[in-house]
Design goal:
- By secondary structure, the chain is α/β, with parallel strands linked by helices.
- It has three domains: about 140 residues, no CATH class; about 150 residues, Reverse transcriptase/Diguanylate cyclase domain (Alpha-Beta Plaits, 2-Layer Sandwich); about 240 residues, EAL domain (TIM Barrel), CATH 3.20.20.
- Helices cover about 55% and strands about 15% of the residues.
- It is built from 20 helices and 18 strands.
- An eight-stranded mixed beta barrel has the order 10-11-13-14-15-16-17-18, surrounded by seven helices.
- Helix 1 runs parallel beside helix 3, helix 10 runs parallel beside helix 12 and helix 14 packs parallel to helix 15.
- The N and C termini lie far apart (about 100 Å).
- The model has no long low-confidence stretch (mean pLDDT about 85).
Length: about 550
């Protein structure tokens, strides 16, 4: 009878494996243990009566009632844990334990009211079988194709290691190239089987195969991983058999190794898989290396990038994208005739997010297109509502990202926005940067020609940064060329740069194009650039990028309107 209560207790302990793995929860389990010990003593001390009907012996009395009470108590606590903390449990464990407890309650209730039906022992055995087939069956954790542990076993193993605060090291061996190696499916299976067999011969490691047919090696520490990696790389320098008998030829593979020497860089098993997938994709894009070490700094940068991506998305959703304007001075007219529209993000606390932090992330994630379109629409709305032309502003420059320049429907989208606000297209000047792809350049030129026919003009931005060149000026139908800050500043610091800039200016003017010199910060620089014959000046000497209201005030005052 006492054994029945202990079965209920161990059922509870088994249930709590997923919930109370941390040290701070152990006191709770100790409390349950004290209860079961006290219950056992009480059941032994209470009187018990026996009844023999000629075929079987039945028990009844206070000890019998106490047994049912404590057994049902543990069953109910177990069910409570399953219901309350089920989301923290292994889904299969949750389902199996819940089924077992329900069967046990039904059996115990039936036997309590009809003592001749001895069902509790049968229900206990049935519950054990359910747990075995659902969770403890070794075959359920093995990959039949290779003999390695499967992805389910990998997830459960890592979860338990994290819950116990154990550190470990992980190596992922990606063999994606066999998919394009011409091997038949059967031959791929044999190759994987040979590889797994070799990996399992290395002491101190556990070998798994994930759902993407990659092999994952888990080691207790970095030292074991490095020792195993050395052996694995050496073995992969040789060939692998592609037939079971070794007579069907061989294949040489060059895997990509992703190494996580310290599991604490990830917050849990799921993030380990996510990090491996993320850095594998990033490496495939760059095509850089066949060995990637995932360290704490890489993970921090990735998290920062994802956090910034979420902040950009939130700003877009909550309409916290703002446009700041930097005035552009005409050296001929001696007044401000244009401005560059620059994107800013207003944080929820009212502060401004520096563009140097979010623009690189926006470019990497593709959000730069949405940001660019938002800035363009807000600029058109500003032109419509404030009519800056009345203060001498002839046009406003709006940046186009490289990604936008490569979009086929760019012209269509921007024309729709211009028409939506009834803006004179001549008030719009779009800044482009050099695009490396020939196809992208063709798409850009087509978009430019459509927009130019509508009255929009174009500038070539960042001339002098090593990307934009004179050939690009010849190819692109631009009307303005912008010397970037580095080129403008180099003019005052380097004689060679001075000659280059003067020569470039002469050629650009010979092509009947205008020039903007960016990054002018002092009066001396402004006067020198003016004497040089540059058409427009932009820089902190006049003004930093400022919000819409400040810009309007600046223009009214400085242009004397």
């Amino acid at each position: 009878m006492v054994s029945l209560v202990w079965v209920g207790f161990f059922g509870l302990v088994y249930t709590c494996l997923d919930i109370y793995a941390k040290d701070r929860y152990k006191k709770i389990l100790y409390g349950y243990a004290a209860v079961v010990l006290g219950a056992s003593v009480l059941i032994y001390l209470l009187p018990i009566h026996y009844y023999y009907d000629g075929e079987a012996v039945y028990t009844y009395g206070p000890s019998d009632i106490a047994t049912y009470f404590f057994a049902v108590l543990f069953v109910l606590i177990t069910l409570y844990q399953v219901i309350r903390h089920g989301d923290q449990m292994n889904p299969k464990r949750r389902s199996a334990v819940r089924t077992w407890m329900i069967v046990w309650i039904i059996a115990a209730a039936t036997q309590f009211f009809n003592s001749r039906l001895l069902l509790v022992g049968y229900a206990t055995a049935l519950g054990m079988m359910i747990l075995f087939f659902e969770l403890e069956n070794p075959e359920a954790n093995l990959d039949r194709e290779t003999g390695a542990f499967n992805s389910h076993a990998l997830l459960e193993y890592m979860r338990q290691e994290y819950e116990k605060d154990h550190t470990f090291a992980v190596l992922l061996i990606s063999l994606g190239q066999y998919q394009s190696s011409g091997l038949a499916i059967r031959q791929v299976e044999f190759v994987l089987r040979w590889i797994v067999k070799y990996l399992q011969s290395i002491s101190g490691i556990k070998v798994f195969k994930n759902v993407e047919r990659e092999l994952v090696v888990v080691c207790p520490d970095e030292e074991t991983l490095e020792h195993a990696l050395e052996k694995i790389k050496e073995r992969f320098e040789g060939a692998w058999n592609i037939e079971e008998d070794g007579k069907g030829g061989t294949v040489t593979l060059e895997p990509v190794y992703l190494i996580m020497p310290d599991s604490t860089v990830a917050r849990g098993a799921e993030e380990v898989f996510h990090l491996f997938k993320y850095f594998k994709v990033e490496n495939d894009k760059m095509g850089k290396d066949n060995t990637i070490r995932i360290d704490r700094e890489m993970v921090r940068e990735k998290r920062d990038r994802e956090d910034m991506q979420e902040r950009i998305l939130a700003a877009l959703t909550e309409d916290r994208i703002e446009v700041f304007y930097q005035p552009i001075y005409s050296t001929k007219k001696k007044c401000f005739v244009s401005a560059e529209a620059l994107v800013r993000i207003r944080c929820a606390d009212g502060s401004i997010l520096p563009p140097g932090k979010f623009i690189p992330v926006a470019e990497q994630t593709g959000l730069i297109s949405q940001l660019g379109e938002t800035v363009f629409e807000k600029t058109c709305r500003f032109i419509k509502e404030q009519n800056p032309r009345q203060y001498g502003i002839e046009y406003i420059e709006v940046n186009l990202s490289v990604r936008q320049c490569e979009t086929r429907d760019l012209a269509k989208t921007y024309i729709q926005i211009i028409q939506k606000y009834g803006v004179d297209p001549a008030m719009i000047n779009l800044e482009i940067t050099e695009t490396a792809s020939i196809l992208a350049r063709k798409i850009l030129v087509e978009n430019m020609q459509i927009l130019i026919r509508q009255g929009v003009s174009f500038s070539l931005d960042d001339f002098g940064n090593g990307q934009s060149n004179l050939n690009y000026i010849v190819d692109m139908p631009v009307s303005i060329v912008k010397f970037d800050r580095d080129m403008s500043q180099a003019y005052f610091e380097n004689k060679k740069a001075k000659f280059v800039m003067e020569a470039a200016m002469q050629m650009i003017h010979d092509m009947k194009l205008k020039i903007v010199s960016e990054g002018i910060e002092t009066r001396e620089q402004m006067e020198t650039i003016t004497e040089l014959g540059i058409d427009y000046i932009q820089g902190y000497y006049f003004s930093k990028p400022i919000p819409e209201k400040e810009f309007l005030k600046f223009i009214r005052e400085r242009n004397a309107f």
